[in-house]
Amino acid sequence: MFFIIGIFITVFLCLLLLIKKNKSRADQILVLWLVLILINQLLNYFLVTKAIYQYPDFLGITLSMPVMLGVFLYLYVREITGNRLDNNWITLLHFVPTILLVLLAIPFYMITGAEKIYVFENDGEGFEWYSMIQNTVVALSGLTYSIWSLVIINRHQKSIKDKFSNTDKKELQWLRLLSIGFAVIWVLAAFFDEVVIYSAVSVFVLCIAIFGINQLSIFNSNAELEDIIDNQPTNGTGKPSTKTPSKEDIKSEKYAKSGLSEEMASEIYTSLKVLMEDSSYYKDEELTLIELSKRLEVHPNHLSQVINEMEGKNFYNYINSLRINEFIKLAQLPESKKYTMISLAYDCGFSTKSTFNKHFKLQTGKTPTDFFKS
Questions:
Q1: In DSSP terms, which residues pair with 164 in a beta bridge?
Q2: Does the pTM exceed 0.85?
Q3: pLDDT 10s digits, 72-110
Q4: Are residues 127 and 244 in the same domain?
Q5: pLDDT of 317-333, one tens digit each?
Q6: What average pLDDT does the structure give for the chain?
């Protein structure tokens, strides 16, 4: 029953993604991943029910497929976090273990249908060496790509605070849990039978259904950032810089490495403060470092460095601290008494109550209620 449920869920997801308009590259990878899972599910279901014995030429097709599942997890994680693999040769290298398993299985593919059935009914008799290699490669591949994906996600969760003022729905906690679950499946495969394993696969696919289908790409790609950086002026004035900073201008090692002089940093910081005070740009709940750098006509990396150096905060904490200050000002106005605190928080640029409460306590050491009671 679990086999059939898992198959139907996967078919439904494939159809849902295929009819989805404006599919992103992440969606395309997800479709291929799900199709691969579906083929694997179907062939293994026919193997468990022995229906495949009527067509023995299909036996062995799934021998190398499990290795590719980890690869597609890794590629999907890279795409959804904006770390796209644009080099086709490097991408192809990830499929080398699959190709090797196919090549090693050629002696099995060459035997007759009756012999293939005998091998499968007798726990791989005559091909024990292949089973040992396959099990080792599959287990190592699954665990390696799960861990590799977790590393990318952890880096992403740290880096987005330098780029976004609102990290809600961008932290990919669901994908982190999915990667952990993927690793658990390979651990289960070493100790349990097919029923437990395919039940786990069904749950895994269901999780993709719940979280992955409507996940928006957080970045189009790092190429977008590179294009912006390449076309950004770097002198903080909106004009290409023709002046080479003097040694007197460069007093900090960090400034020296980035080419940002103290004079340039001061200009950028002054422009930033004026913009925030005059236009309350921080109230845009989806404000990003890139958008702000465009508005200031400065290099994104320079703006990030200025915020870190001058404010002692990353972009995320800096913008949200401005939102908290604005909230406190608004909440203290007599005419604001008719509004709830959360509605005022939304007006200041917060998108969720939990994010607002977290930053309010981080900045004041108190909850909003306790703060205004004191």
A1: 288
A2: no
A3: 999 999 998 888 877 788 889 999 999 999 999 999 999
A4: no
A5: 999 999 999 999 999 89
A6: 82
Which pair of tokens denotes residue 281? Answer: 């740009």
| Contact assessment for residue 37 and residue 68, using Cβ atoms and an 8 Å cutoff | no
Tell me if 225 sits within 8 A of 297, measured CB to CB.
Answer: no
Which residue type sits at 224?
E
Q: Please return the burial class of 201, using the count of CB atoms within 10 Å of its CB with bins 0-12, 13-18 and 19+.
A: buried
When pLDDT is cut at 50, 70 and 90, the band that residue 251 belongs to is: very low
Measured CA to CA, the distance from residue 340 to residue 328 in angstroms comes to 13
Indicate whether 132 and 61 sit together in one domain.
yes
Element (H, E) at 3: helix 2-18
CATH no. for residue 269?
1.10.10.60
Residues 7 and 145 in one domain: yes
CA atoms within 13 A on the CB side of 43: 18
Cα angle 133, 145, 176 (rounded to 5 degrees) comes to: 145
Helices (H) and strands (E) in the chain, counts: 19, 0
How many of the other CB atoms lie within 10 Å of CB of 22?
5
Residue 246 gets the label, from left (phi > 0), alpha (psi -120 to 50) or beta, of beta
What length does the chain have? 374
Cβ atoms of 104 and 63 closer than 8 Å? no
